[in-house]
Amino acid sequence: MTPERWAQIRQVFDGALERSEVDRAAYLRVVCARDDDLRREVESLLSSHDSAGDFLDKPAASFASTTQTLISSGIDLQEYPPGHRVGPYELQKCIGRGGMGSVWLATRSDNEFKKQVAIKLVKRGMDTQEILRRFRLERQLLAGLTHPNIAALIDGGSTPDGLPYLVMEYVDGIRIDRYCEQHKSTITERLKLFRDVCAAVQYAHGNLVVHRDLKAGNILVTADGIPKLLDFGIAKLIRNEFDTLAAAETRPELRPMTLDYASPEQVRGEPITTATDIYSLGVLLYKLLTGKSPYGLAARSDSALRKAICEQEPLKPSAVVLTDEKAVIPDATQKIDLTHEETRDKARRRLKKKLAGDLDMIVLMALRKEPLRRYASVEQFSGDIRRYLEGRPVIARSDTFGYRSARFLRRNAVAVIAATVATLTLLGATILEQQSAARASQRDAIAEARLKVIEAESLHQQGDLMDAYFHLAESQGPPAALETYRSALASAREFDRTHAGLPAASRFLARAAIQVGNLAPEEALDLFTEACSRLDPLGETETADYFAALEGLGRTQFRRRDLLASLASFSRALQIAERQSSGGGKLDQASANLWVGAVLAHNGENEAAAAKLRKAFELYSDLAGAHINSVEDSPAGYRKALADLAAQASPDLRQAIETQLRESATS
Amino acid sequence: MAGHTGDQGEVTRLLGDLGRGDKDAVNQLLPLVYDELHRLARSYFRRERGEHTLQPTALVHEAYIRLVDQRAPLESRGHFLAVAATQMRRILLDYARKHHAARRGGAGQKVLLEDTMAISQQKPVDIIALDAALLKLASLDGDQSQVVELRFFGGLSVEETAEVMGNSPATVKRAWSSARAFLHREITGGSLDARAMGADPSGF
């Protein structure tokens, strides 16, 4: 078949499709009068068309296997070939891969001793500022850490195409949990091994480094039985915590965290301290002693696990051992044959006895929800295990009463918060004695709003939390409000991440993005665009939120002198406002008209501009209940009239008009 | 949205180059687009596990929002979507071929895009056969082949496809109908040349 022939077939086919099935035969007879071959081709295509069903109707991206393919093929395509040189090192084989890059076993090719090292490479295409920054940080952190239980940094550099790499001590070992399994380690052996891990973490903490991602997969045990801590990839310097947390909050996908070992504060995105590592160590110990996760069945889905981490008390290790068929770990006295039902049962009961009491208490103390109620340091945690091994009383037991009363307080959070409000108000009064009463009442309002935030947070009511944030921001006023709105946005992002697809999640996110966009011009374009793209799929394109997003977008585009885009945004905003009949609609209409007029004027379209500004002027006059006589029918004339009008309007309206006039003025 | 600010400038610049006729820019664009698609697919997969189906066009569109400066000229969007669609096709084909090779000897097994959405009765698509048929269509009408690439692999709507190709939606719809009939006939072995070889019970 030639292209010309195909074009002919297509034309007849298109014509046939436009006709009803009854008329088709006659149509084909006429059109293909002297060309039977053409008729047959078209008829065959029509029959194929009729039997095609939904063939190709759904895009490839909607097939589950496409997603799978994208996920798995990405790994294949990103690979560096073995033998590839990185600086003086020769890659041998890939020993680990992650979202950001890969880890390779390599040898120094100019070295006669052929010392093996591990090289960590950033994946091509992943060399974004954030990841490069994190890479530099890891190098900086590791360079400062020298400990027999921490894999050492040997070297670092960048490849000819500019990707950074780290050269680290190669640890030839297996994951700590598998090591214990394979060696059928006794409880005592496990505890001793665990204390070595604690020593490494304690050392890191002493150097102001929190690991943040402690898990069995990051701890390898060598053939000599020495555990080595790997991957300070997401570790942070303690003193910079707030700075880095904010960065991670805005990029949830860049906040790698192993949920299994995550602490409540990590799940909630709260500040991370050394107590976070203590919690993760608690999870590790729990797993080493029972072979199970602290939240057992709750771990079915990520969201259920998140909830369990924040709310559910873990089962005592001894209780898990008895109910779980598989949880059989030899006790300290003897190695046992686990193939026999009877001995397995006996071993299980012996293990339960061994764990019940002190070990239960020790593990649970590390796993407490509130960071401050855990062990005060890794040293103390490790010390308690030592005391247990030596048969001396452990701290974890003596602390139980205090812990219980703390739990009581937590359960009665609302009452406690009320009491705190009273205390804070008293405190506020003392500090503010010298200040004006107005300032004091504003402070009170802020303090109260702040507590509302805490309360909503503790109750996990995202809607209330958003309201509380907005209320707080309003009582603060700019510039402090920006930080509050940012917190609201971060919280909304987190909520959206855990409740993907929930319309409310998109709505919260859009609302917060609009507020941050209003106060942070630098990020406004992205934020308003995001707000629109969040509301679009919900079909909520006629709402006040959507109007606000469009207006914000228009203002931002105007500031960037992108007049056409700005005009488009304001025109859409105007359409929305015009379809609204309520009182708010009038104000929105007025402001959208003013903006459309201002942008048109900038574009030199004076006549159209004057019409819109006239409309704005009329609407604002109505709202202000004021009249200005003798207005010149030109953009400049209406701008002047609007300024005069503002002077007679209520404070809010005055501010609104003056702000718009100022922002839309020629710079 | 924070976006990949590093990549964003780069992608936007390359799209500009492409718009000025620098065909080499495509080769530099492909890996960047690929990485983004890959990354997004992973995050979608993680987020939507079990509970939601993958939003068909969301991947490519989100990649665009993240990778391209929104102030870029409109035509850049078209170039981007075209590159993304080509890339999706290439990824799927490479993968299918690899699987095909791995299974060879297993009596000519097909590599199918299966649909896991329970409500739909959609038939699976043999991706290797589809690619061959598309190549054949491209030799007859390059525009039609591109329409299929944009719509099936890029997940674009009729309107978006029209925008990318600079045609009217009606033209795209017409091109789509005959292209789909052609491809379906090719894949199901119903091409006229093939039929002519044996008795045709349907009377054609």
Verbal overview:
The complex is a heterodimer of chains A (667) and B (204). Residues 73-78, 237-256, 332-336 and 401-436 of chain A have low confidence and may be disordered. Chain A is built from 29 helices and 11 strands. The two termini of chain A are 64 Å apart. Chain A has a 6-stranded antiparallel beta sheet with strand order 1-2-3-4-6-5, covered by helices on one side. In chain A, strands 7-9-10 form a 3-stranded antiparallel beta sheet. In chain A, 61% of the residues lie in helices and 8% in strands. In chain A, a hairpin with a 2-residue loop joins strand 1 and strand 2 (89-97). Chain A folds into 4 domains: 3-51, no CATH class; 76-169, Phosphorylase Kinase, domain 1 (2-Layer Sandwich), CATH 3.30.200; 180-399, Transferase(Phosphotransferase), domain 1, CATH 1.10.510; 541-667, Alpha Horseshoe (Serine Threonine Protein Phosphatase 5, Tetratricopeptide repeat). By secondary structure, chain A is an alpha+beta fold. Chain B has one domain (5-197). A two-stranded antiparallel sheet of chain B has the order 1-2. In chain B, helix 1 packs across helix 2 and helix 2 crosses helix 4 (74-103).
